[in-house]
Design brief:
This protein is α+β, with helices and mostly antiparallel strands and 529 residues long. It has 22 helices and twelve strands. The protein is 41% helix and 15% strand. It starts with a helix and ends with a helix.
């Protein structure tokens, strides 16, 4: 860590030099204009160039007020006062530096993101998909821009870009939270606002079955091999009894998610992860090949929980109680599920089949059994995918987006919707695998430890990072390899979820994790850079 800090100090001294390939004169020039006479008036009117993105103007004072950006508006007001002092300085010269000093806070805040053009990143395509009738609030737009910087190239262990990016990401996250904005990680399409859950008849009971998770210092794992462990964002240690005023006939037991290893039953059985047998087989193989292998939880997208019982059981239970739904609409829904296609490669050709043709119907007495038969996981996902369509939602089916939000762990779910999942929170759980301890849920004298994922692997729960980091900070080799191979960024998410992604935790990798946590928290808490 000391070596990193010395490298960082050298980076600061070297930054901004014309022979630095990262040097871009536009941001500094644009920020410098904020000190010019009359710039306060121009800024307040919305005519000041944005140092962080060429061709775009900073929001006006009124836009900031309407958008809840009261700090920016206040600093613009201070800039107006600075103009007045500088104008008076033509008569009383000592007032000129006083006026310039009044402009400094606004210039410093605006310059926070200068120097990195994120307009071409994959993440910044997301705001463009929003319908014109529901543009992003400015604070959410700023969060996306700060997050998008992590999709720009950087070398592992460099000491200049990461602190700046992490600090800005933390500061923008804080601003979104301060305004009470809901940021959608992909729970729905972008055609409407997220529903407000709040106190609307939803009851989630805390069963007090989770062990306290120790805070992990990544520096303690230097030299170890880490394996990416994708998991959904669902909660653990909870039971959902009511959803939006509907009392569930069969309360849904939540088992996670990142907190599965902390569950009381998981600890009694010595289990650290659960999944389908074919996935656990891969984990066992990797653990045997890499003794002491460390699994690192990384959050999947907003729809990642659709495959699990957490979402499906709630939707089926609520639908069976929705006696206002027309029989015709129910029939249309059932047919849509039955006609869900699956396309796979066979002999080099795409072959499409319809494996859910035998779907018994959403109101069938057999639906609960059908959804958990071998090979029927696609039915659970199809129920959610089809039910969230506007035509079925408007007809009175349960609000799938709301259910996804309710079953998700809050600490994992308020984040940007990144198609590549490079920004996916990673490190909230670390485990060490024991490939000799594998068991099947509910078989023989083994209790059911997970309704959906029927096989578990044992090991040791190591705890988690107090502040999770972007996936590409923890597993940089995977992304570097894909970029070198010319792979498109949108395909990163699927590749990471189905591949055996390994990463040696070197000193530079560990330092990057530590520095991200430090500077993200500085920005989050409003401490100085």
């Amino acid at each position: 860590m000391e070596k990193f800090l010395s490298d960082y100090d050298r980076g600061l001294l070297m930054s901004g030099q014309p022979d630095d390939p990262r040097f871009n004169p536009y941001p500094a020039l644009a920020a410098g204009l904020l000190f010019a006479p009359g710039s306060g008036i121009t800024d307040a009117a919305g005519g000041m160039a944005d140092p962080s993105q060429a061709g775009r103007m900073l929001p006006s004072m009124m836009s900031n007020i309407r958008g809840g950006e009261y700090m920016d508006a206040g600093l613009q007001g201070l800039g107006l006062l600075g103009d007045a002092f500088m104008a008076a300085g033509t008569v009383v010269p000592p007032l000129i530096p006083v006026g310039a000093a009044m402009k400094a806070p606004r210039a410093a805040k605006v310059a926070g993101r200068m120097g990195e053009d994120v307009s071409g990143t994959l993440l910044m395509q997301q705001p463009k998909k929003r319908p014109q009738i529901r543009q992003m609030p400015q604070a959410e737009q700023d969060l996306y821009e700060a997050a998008a910087a992590f999709q720009l190239p950087r070398d592992v262990g460099e000491g200049l870009l990461l602190p700046q990016r992490a600090y800005e990401y933390g500061a923008r996250t804080a601003e979104v939270g301060n305004q009470g904005l809901l940021v959608d990680p992909g729970f729905q399409n972008l055609g409407r606002d997220l529903p407000i859950i709040g106190d609307n008849g939803t009851v989630v009971r805390d069963l007090k079955t989770l062990a306290e998770s120790p805070d992990l210092d990544i520096q303690s794992l230097i030299g170890r091999t880490a394996k990416l462990m994708p998991g959904d964002m669902t909660m653990a240690g909870k039971e959902i009894t009511h959803v939006q005023g509907v009392k569930l006939k069969n309360p849904v037991r939540m088992r996670g998610g990142k907190d599965f290893p902390a569950e009381e039953l998981s600890r009694e059985l010595g289990l650290v992860w659960a999944s389908d047998p074919n996935i656990i087989t891969r984990y066992v193989k990797a653990a045997k090949k890499n003794p002491g292998l460390v699994g690192v939880y990384t959050a999947m997208g907003g729809r990642g929980g659709d495959f699990s019982h957490h979402v499906a059981d709630v939707l089926v239970d609520m639908t069976k109680q929705a006696d206002w739904l027309p029989k015709k609409t129910i029939k249309e829904f059932d047919e849509a599920v039955r006609n869900t296609p699956t396309t796979k490669k066979k002999d080099g050709k795409n072959v499409t089949t319809y494996p859910l043709k035998d779907f018994p119907g959403i109101l069938s007495n057999d639906i609960e059994t059908y959804m958990y038969e071998a090979g029927k996981g696609a039915a659970r996902k199809a129920i959610a995918d089809i039910m969230e369509k506007g035509s079925f939602r408007d007809a009175g089916f349960p609000d799938v987006t709301a259910v996804r939000m309710i079953v998700s762990e809050p600490s994992m779910s308020s984040r940007v919707n990144d198609p590549s999942d490079m920004l996916a929170p990673t490190g909230a759980r670390f485990v060490e695998f024991d490939p000799k301890n594998v068991m099947n849920s509910g078989q023989g004298n083994i209790p059911e430890f997970h309704k959906t994922y029927r096989q578990g692997i044992g090991g040791t729960d190591l705890g988690g990072l107090l502040t999770p980091v972007p996936r590409n900070i923890m597993f940089p080799d995977f992304y570097a390899g894909r970029r070198a191979a010319g792979k498109d960024m949108p395909s990163d998410r699927r590749s990471a979820e189905i591949s055996n992604v390994l990463q040696e935790i070197t000193q530079p990798v560990a330092d990057d994790v530590s520095v991200f946590q430090d500077y993200f928290n500085r920005g989050l808490l409003g401490r100085g850079f």
